[in-house]
């Protein structure tokens, strides 16, 4: 049985917020909408829209994925953002992005994702990622998502996992998806992540680099591919089916 919007991912629905028309490929959502979702993020990662200059907008419209580093003075880690277009509807994209139980099937580097706790408003997921040189890291993330007629935010932060030794995890990570409609058709998505992977053993810079520019670009590409696969003509399964029991 296909999941409804309210079931998939245990998201919060703000049905009272008025829809807004998005100018071109500039996503700008209501202040109340963002305030509810972005409380999970540190100040450095609280971008409130997808702002593109003319050159960036042209690149994204052509189908390319824009990757940029977001300054975060005073913080040990780095924040990277990837911006690109996605196929499908808002409901379909939201369902794929919150399909935590199947992340290992399509998200890059994720070897295991196990949902540990769910409520009406949030979801806690334990994730193990595979890294270069046979390394791996694990962490526990708390996800929260909000939805309006014009788009959605899925935000997350690292939460304590007392049994996990520090050497097996990252020091800190948080981030968010921001997705809205494009006037030209389809969706515009921003995937933004702050990560402080320290400590990184000497000689394992490839491990730290896995959390950088290439990592965020890969996520947009994989979600785009997942949506295209599930939306392919003749395929019986649609986004949302069997994503969460």
Could you state the CATH homologous superfamily?
A: START domain
Helix residue percentage = 10-25%
Number of domains: 1
Unreliable stretches (pLDDT < 50, length at least 5) are 1-34, 240-245
C-alpha geometry = globular
Element order: H for helix, E for strand: EEHEHEEHHEEEEEEHH
- CATH fold assignment: Alpha-D-Glucose-1,6-Bisphosphate, Chain A, domain 4
| Cα radius of gyration in angstroms | 17 Å
- Alpha-carbon distance between the termini? 10 Å
* Arithmetic mean pLDDT: 74
Please state roughly what percent of the residues sit in beta strands, choosing from under 5%, 5-15%, 15-25%, 25-35%, 35-45% or over 45%: 25-35%
CATH architecture: 2-Layer Sandwich
What is the count of β-strands?
A: 11
- Please identify the top-level CATH class: Alpha Beta
Q: How many distinct helices?
A: 6
Classification by helices and strands: alpha+beta
Largest sheet: 9 strands, mixed
Task: Describe the structure in your own words.
The protein is of the alpha+beta class. The protein has one domain: START domain (Alpha-D-Glucose-1,6-Bisphosphate, Chain A, domain 4), CATH 3.30.530. Helix content is 21%, strand content 32%. The chain contains 6 helices and 11 strands. The strands form 2 sheets. Strands 1, 4, 5, 6, 7, 8, 9, 10 and 11 form a 9-stranded mixed beta sheet that branches. The N terminus and C terminus are likely disordered.
């Amino acid at each position: 049985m296909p999941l409804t919007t309210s079931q998939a991912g245990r998201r919060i629905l703000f049905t009272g917020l008025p829809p807004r028309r998005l100018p071109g490929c500039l996503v700008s959502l209501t202040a109340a909408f963002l305030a509810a979702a972005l409380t999970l993020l540190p100040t450095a990662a609280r971008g409130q829209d997808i702002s593109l200059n003319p050159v960036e907008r042209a690149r994204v419209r052509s189908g390319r994925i824009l990757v940029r580093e977001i300054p975060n003075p005073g913080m040990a880690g780095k924040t990277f953002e990837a911006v690109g277009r996605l196929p499908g509807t808002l409901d379909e994209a939201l369902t794929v992005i919150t399909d935590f139980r199947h992340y290992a099937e399509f998200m890059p580097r994720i070897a295991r994702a196990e949902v540990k706790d769910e409520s009406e408003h949030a979801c806690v997921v334990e994730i193990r990622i595979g890294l270069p040189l046979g390394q791996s890291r694990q962490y526990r993330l708390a996800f929260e998502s909000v939805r309006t007629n014009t788009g959605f935010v899925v935000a997350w932060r690292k939460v304590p996992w007392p049994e996990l030794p520090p050497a097996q995890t990252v020091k800190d990570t948080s981030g968010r998806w921001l997705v809205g409609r494009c006037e030209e058709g389809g969706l515009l998505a921003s995937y933004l992540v702050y990560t402080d992977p320290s400590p990184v053993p000497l000689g394992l810079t490839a491990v730290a680099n896995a959390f950088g520019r290439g990592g965020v670009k890969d996520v947009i590409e994989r979600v785009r591919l997942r949506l295209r696969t599930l939306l392919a003509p003749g395929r019986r399964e649609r986004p949302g089916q069997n994503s969460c029991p």
